[in-house]
Write a structure and sequence with these properties.
The protein has 652 residues and is of the alpha+beta class. Among the domains are: 264-363, Alpha Horseshoe (Serine Threonine Protein Phosphatase 5, Tetratricopeptide repeat), CATH 1.25.40; 366-449; 471-648, Histidine kinase-like ATPase, C-terminal domain (Heat Shock Protein 90). It has helices at 2-20, 25-46, 51-58, 65-77, 81-97, 101-117, 121-137, 141-156, 163-182, 186-203, 206-222, 226-243, 246-262, 266-283, 286-302, 306-322, 326-342, 346-363, 366-405, 411-449, 452-467, 471-492, 499-516, 544-555, 586-596, 605-617, and strands at residues 496-498, 521-527, 537-539, 562-570, 575-582, 625-632, 638-648. Strands 2-4-5-7-6 form a five-stranded mixed beta sheet, covered by helices on one side. Strands 1-3 form a two-stranded antiparallel ribbon. Strand 4 (562-570) and strand 5 (575-582) form a beta hairpin. Helix 15 (286-302) runs parallel beside helix 17. It is globular.
Length: 652
């Protein structure tokens, strides 16, 4: 119904335009063709190289595909590489906006090749940014981030930047910030948006300022900084009012309304979201109509106006399904699930949650997430290497300065200065060495957690459920597996996490591993009431190697009654004690079995964990300690193994 109305509206507008311009379109076309020919002659005869000059001549024609094709033809004839590159980028943008992404990529890559041949940095940066935008539209965030990063690096290498190059830098930074938002890397996103804002302020680009403040508000809201987010949303609204952007106003109204709901300012939220819906219906933008209905439904749910909540959420879901807005569908189903709970209809609540989870799983691209995480680690590593090079360069400058001034200094003073320099270099060298060691440990730790055998075997186990038509088990464990991988990726970017998060991750890990043991393992976590696991920090994923050892060395060869217990106790004000106990075959028997195997697997997880615990403890008053107990009965027979790790909790 909505699509038919939109088509009728468009036809009506086209008819009016044809009637209105019937007597003027011929002369207008002649004028524009004449203007374009003049612009073409000027550009080719002067062979403009500067991107700003080229854009100032052709910017009024770059949305006309026929004129851009003519620019390509004339540029080829006259060997005008810059004009040809500009036209290919313009055509690529036209194809992109029509969702012909393959064609768009083809044209932007041609533009990029021509920019390289002409040695034109501005056109090269523009082509890379254009490619990044296309890949972001296709939800291929890894490729998008790669192209925008290349554009930003190349643009920053230019010493004297003109206005066009500065604008390209702002585009790169804003696009990278949006990619980081998708990855929930909010601090990295804020850094990019703030850098982009500096350039937009200098250029007084109100549209760019509106977009960046909206994005900053989103990142701050995601971090729970509601008041700060509200300030940025209001700034964005001010700029949108200044340029009279109706779409921008709708976006800001919805964002501000969501913050008001979270702050329980329900009357203010109602007024502004209704204003957003009113404008969205006028401009007929379906994505923002969906957002407005969603927010109204959520608001009604919060104030227990359940009948109106159902009406608005159902409208939002219908539009989202018609236009395939999957993220909006997920949000609608989750709100409807909460609505069912309030109506004591738990069956519908469960069904809606399952549908939301199913849609969410279809849009999760784990391969892209893994690749991006690798990129983030690479960028952090490169930043550390740059710091090392800068320190080395600084040391060389200090030494050179000392050599130039040594004749003017007294011998004793020279010896003293040299002594301090050596001490500084030694300390810095140790610090750099320590930083590199920590980085290596974190990367090794991630490789261990993301062991391809574990991933393959887990997915293979889930596949068996699917083959056996055990759909509920397959969906249940696939959700668990997805959550575990996501937690591992998030934890890999953080040196320390709360003990509470660590225990959640370990429970997910054990749930996945237990599939391969036919759910025979009885795994339990016992937490002493005196321990506040939310306030205790531990190295991320530090317990996984111990649980893995208990599984594969202690319980894998045992027939029945397989148990692993994880106990958390507070010894005193200095340590929290974490013990992992299994009732397996014991270390001696495990070692004998290992020696009999043809293929021996060398475990390095415990060694890496010891080093990580050592580096972690350096910031505390006490050093960690760890010991392993062989549990035996009165006859000396093995009852299992107990690993006890005492982690310090008092800072220096």
């Amino acid at each position: 119904m909505a699509s038919q109305t939109l088509i009728q509206f468009c036809k009506h507008c086209i008819l009016l335009c044809l009637l209105f311009f019937a007597n003027t379109n011929t002369s207008y076309a002649q004028d524009t063709n004449h203007d374009f020919k003049n612009s073409l002659d000027i550009a080719i005869s002067n062979e403009y190289k500067n991107y700003g000059d080229i854009d100032s001549i052709f910017k009024h024609f770059k949305r006309d595909s026929l004129k851009m094709q003519r620019l390509i033809k004339e540029s080829k004839t006259n060997n005008y590489l810059e004009g040809e590159s500009y036209a290919y980028n313009a055509l690529g943008a036209i194809y992109r906006n029509k969702s012909f992404y393959d064609k768009a990529i083809e044209h932007h890559k041609k533009a990029d090749s021509l920019a390289i041949l002409s040695n034109n940095v501005n056109l090269k940066v523009s082509s890379l940014n254009m490619l990044g935008v296309v890949y972001r539209r296709m939800d291929l965030v890894s490729s998008a981030l790669d192209y925008h990063s290349q554009a930003l690096t190349l643009a920053n290498s230019v010493e004297n930047k003109d206005a066009a190059l500065k604008y390209s830098i702002a585009v790169s930074q804003n696009s990278m910030g949006n990619i980081y938002l998708v990855l929930k890397q909010y601090d990295l996103a804020l850094k990019q948006f703030n850098e982009s804002i500096k350039i937009e302020k200098e250029a007084n680009n109100k549209l760019g300022l509106a977009i960046n403040h909206q994005n900053i508000g989103f990142a701050k809201e995601a971090k729970g900084l509601l008041e700060e987010a509200l300030v940025d949303y209001q700034k964005s609204l001010t700029y949108n009012n200044a340029i009279n952007s109706e779409v921008g106003k709708v976006i800001c109204f919805n964002s501000i309304g969501k913050v008001f709901i979270k702050q329980k300012k329900y009357e203010e939220a109602k007024n502004i979201i209704e204003k957003a819906l009113e404008k969205a219906l006028i401009i007929k933008d379906q994505i923002y109509i969906t957002s407005s209905y969603l927010n109204l439904g959520w608001l009604n749910l919060e104030i227990n106006n359940l009948q109106q909540a159902k009406l608005n959420l159902t409208k939002a879901l219908e539009v989202a399904q018609e236009y395939k807005f999957k993220s909006s569908q997920i949000e609608a189903y989750r709100h409807l699930s909460n609505l069912s709970i309030k109506n004591n209809n738990y069956k519908d609540a469960l069904n809606n949650t399952k549908i939301a989870d199913s849609i969410e799983n279809t849009i999760n691209n784990q391969r892209n997430l893994n690749y991006i995480n690798d990129l983030l680690i690479k960028y952090e590593s490169d930043a550390k290497n740059n710091t090392i090079e800068a320190l080395a360069s600084e040391n060389e400058e200090v030494k050179s300065q000392l050599q130039r001034n040594q004749l003017a200094l007294l011998f004793g003073l020279l010896v003293l200065i040299l002594f301090f320099i050596i001490l500084i270099v030694f300390n810095r060298h140790n610090q750099v060495k320590q930083d590199k060691k920590i980085l290596t440990l974190e990367q090794d730790m991630l490789r261990i957690q993301m062991n391809p055998h574990f991933i393959f075997n887990s997915l293979n186990s889930i596949k068996l459920y699917i083959i056996n038509n055990e759909k509920e088990n397959a969906v249940y464990y696939l959700n668990k597996f997805a959550k575990l991988i996501r937690k591992i990726l998030v934890a890999s970017n953080e040196k320390n996490i709360s003990l509470s998060d660590e225990l959640d991750t370990m429970e997910l890990y054990m749930n996945i591993e237990n599939i391969r043991f036919s759910n025979e393992i009885d795994f339990s976590i016992n937490i002493d009431e005196n321990v506040n696991v939310d306030n205790i920090k531990v190295p991320s994923l530090v317990l996984q190697p111990f649980l893995e050892n208990a599984l594969w060395h202690g319980l894998s060869t045992k027939k029945n009654d397989k148990k692993i217990t994880l106990d958390i106790e507070k010894m005193d004000n200095r340590f929290v004690s974490i013990s992992i106990t299994d009732n397996g075959v014991g270390r001696e028997t495990s070692e004998k079995i290992k020696q009999q195997k043809t293929l021996k697997r060398k475990s390095i997880g415990i060694a890496i964990t010891r080093e990580r615990l050592f580096n972690f403890s350096r910031q505390y008053k006490d050093m960690y300690n760890m010991h392993i107990e062989d549990l035996k009965d009165e006859n000396g027979s093995a009852l299992g193994t107990k690993v006890v790790v005492n982690i310090p909790i008092q800072f220096v």
